[in-house]
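The pair is listed for reference:
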Amino acid sequence: MLTKRIIPCLDIKNGRTVKGVNFLDLRYAGDPVELAQFYAENSADELVFLDISATEEKRKTLADLVLRVAEKVNIPFTVGGGISSVEDVDVLLQFGADKVSINSSAVKRPELINELSAKFGSQCVVVAIDAKQVDGEWKVHLVGGKVATDLNLFDWAKEVEKRGAGEILFTSMNNDGTKNGFANEALAKLSTDLNIPIIASGGAGTMQHFADTFKEGKADAALAASVFHFKEIAIPELKEFLNEKEILVRR
């Protein structure tokens, strides 16, 4: 059985780590490089950096940040935001990123998934899907959750897998920042429908929420931000808790 992964997420805006609720009301959460180093030294399995303003402001991801992080951490990390071409990914991987995350650009031009998978391998390609439950149906949203689409979450996830994505990072906009738990019903359906790993995102508030998303949501990894950034949950203690619940995690 594969071990479950714990992944701190650092949302980056103008070079600073920020965190909000339901994708709104952002507040400063610390220097991204310092946070990355702290997590690498305190049992995080991976890191995710998402430049949440890159797509909206039509900027490229900050290759300089990737370089600085790569110099400080020894665990895998994923970078996303503003990535729209093979050339963008080539630069980020050369600078030290292990994977890239694409979201809006994949919806606008799904062939990008095929191109990145063919060039770099599916293990490098994470497709992030931000979705919101509207009138009982999960709809995909773009540009940091600001633009609604007609795409159904589960249909899009299946297409993403067929095109060569290695993982899906699913964020429930309804749960994001609420600390009321992950969207486990949707996660379980994704995990059942697909053969690639699903990363749960949005809603972590307690250690039990992580246990629930691994057991009920069948998630392969759980991603969180504020509970880690603001020292509400320590990752070593979380892993001990999960171990006691007989959930296999890396120590």
In short: The chain is about 35% helix and 30% strand. The longest helix spans residues 63-72. The chain has a mean pLDDT of 90. The first strand starts at residue 5 and ends at 13.
